[in-house]
Amino acid sequence: MAITIKTQDQIQRMRVAGAILADLDEILRDMVKPGVTTNELDRVAEDFIRSRGAEPSFLGYGGYPKSICTSVNDEIVHGIPSNRKLKNGDIISIDMGSYIGGYHGDCARTYGVGTISEADQKLIDVTKQSFFEGIKFAKAGNHLYEISAAVQDYAEQFGFGVVRDYVGHGIGRNMHEDPSIPNYRQVGRGPRLQRGMVIAVEPMITAGTYKCRVLKDGWTAVTRDGSNAAHYENTVLITDGEPELLTFK
Ligand code: MF3
Ligand code: CO
């Protein structure tokens, strides 16, 4: 499938989808406290997305059973909400998607639960910053893999692992569109970025190895060495100047 260039009307729809998630993120962030269950986060997320006239993009996607992904500690991505209660010192990555007007938004954040270790706070901060280092190159005329290299170079300076098995993606009418967006160096430069492309850039960074395995539930990706992982993602509109972050406020 070719990379799609969005029209102004399509971009406006994607802004609407993205703004719902930026608002939802604030609600979930405030709920992340010891004792809350990941199912409670999922319920609030689903209700909020629907209250805005949208649908949760993830629900039913490839058979996925919930509206958000909640990945705790060594879980990297695609953790399934459950009756698990968050504990003081945990870290949780929350990944959310909304679909409205025929278009998707997608974003993820990692938060600490109560008081977390300095090492985990560093992991969260470096993961977020690796996204911002990457998108310094997200501009029409640059090439996609400049983003990939910048994410990797930043995160690896701190001795962290950059996950290979999961990558970012184009987004629009479908949640996952071309191109794939690795968070690590590639051979070649990749496609040239053009105004009107919309991409989900989403570094997944670990405190140890970048190697993953998937739990028996068929979804939850965890680090092979049990080290903690963080995730940070926004839906990004490419322009001739600064990129516009559609899921961020
Ligand atoms: N948000 C994830 C991504 O960034 C996809 C979630 S997979 C699902 O690509 F099955 F949970 F929807
Ligand atoms: Co994504």
Characterise this structure:
This protein is of the alpha+beta class. Helices cover 28% and strands 25% of the residues. It has helices at residues 8-31, 38-51, 118-135, 144-156, and strands at 55-56, 68-72, 75-77, 91-100, 103-112, 161-162, 168-170, 177-181, 198-201, 204-206, 212-214, 221-223, 229-231, 234-237, 244-245. The strands form four sheets. The chain has a five-stranded antiparallel beta sheet with strand order 8-7-9-14-15. Strands 1, 2, 4 and 5 form a four-stranded antiparallel beta sheet that branches. Strands 3-12-11 form a three-stranded antiparallel beta sheet, with no helix packed on it. Strand 11 (212-214) and strand 12 (221-223) form a beta hairpin. Helix 3 (118-135) packs antiparallel against helix 4. The longest helix is centred in the N-terminal third of the chain and has 24 residues, at 8-31. The mean pLDDT is 98. The structure holds 2-amino-4-trifluoromethylsulfanyl-butyric acid (MF3) and cobalt (II) ion. Residues 58, 61-62, 64, 69, 78, 95, 97, 106, 169, 200, 202, 233 line the site of 2-amino-4-trifluoromethylsulfanyl-butyric acid.
